[in-house]
Amino acid sequence: MDYAHTDDGCFDDSALLVMGVAFDDACRSLRHLSRNYQTRELLALRIVGAAIRGERDPIRLCSQATSGLHVANGAELMSA
User: Fold this and answer.
1) Are 58 and 21 in contact (CB under 8 A)?
2) What's the pLDDT band for 69 if we cut at 50, 70, 90?
3) Are 61 and 55 in contact (CB under 8 A)?
4) How confident is the model at residue 70 (pLDDT cuts 50, 70, 90)?
5) What's this model's pTM, rounded to 2 decimal places?
6) Neighbours of 12 (CB within 10 A)
7) Which pLDDT belongs to residue 41?
8) 65 with 46: CB under 8 angstroms?
9) Angle between helices 37-52 and 13-29 in degrees, nearest 10
10) What is the pLDDT of residues 18-66, one digit of tens each?
11) What is the 3-state secondary structure (H, E, C) of the chain?
12) For residues 59-79, b (16+ Cβ closer than 10 Å) or e, as one string?
């Protein structure tokens, strides 16, 4: 079994799969804004953080990644 290492531990294959699904869903939910590197990095960091805390449900991971984010004026990502 393969593992991805982080400073706080590591994730097994099934966790990585769930995290990938959550990341893809989060990017899709933000549409064109997810093309921005900083937005993608923020989503990834939020998903990793939630996974470190033990979350393994892709819907909840996606929700936690996008929580408090909204589009201002149709072009700018804002954090509430």
Assistant:
1) yes
2) confident
3) yes
4) low
5) 0.79
6) 11
7) 94
8) yes
9) 140
10) 999 999 999 999 887 778 899 899 999 999 999 999 999 999 999 999 9
11) CCEEEECCEEEEHHHHHHHHHHHHHHHHHCHHHHHCHHHHHHHHHHHHHHHHCCCCCHHHHHHHHHCCEEEECCCEEEEC
12) eebbbbbbeebeeeeeeeeee
Structure tokens at 73: 């004026």
- Name the token pair of 55: 């979350």
- 14-20: which pairs have CB atoms within 8 A and are 24 or more residues apart? 14/56, 15/51, 15/56, 18/51, 18/56, 18/57, 18/58, 18/61, 19/47, 19/48, 19/51, 19/58, 19/61
Quote the tokens at residue 18: 């769930």
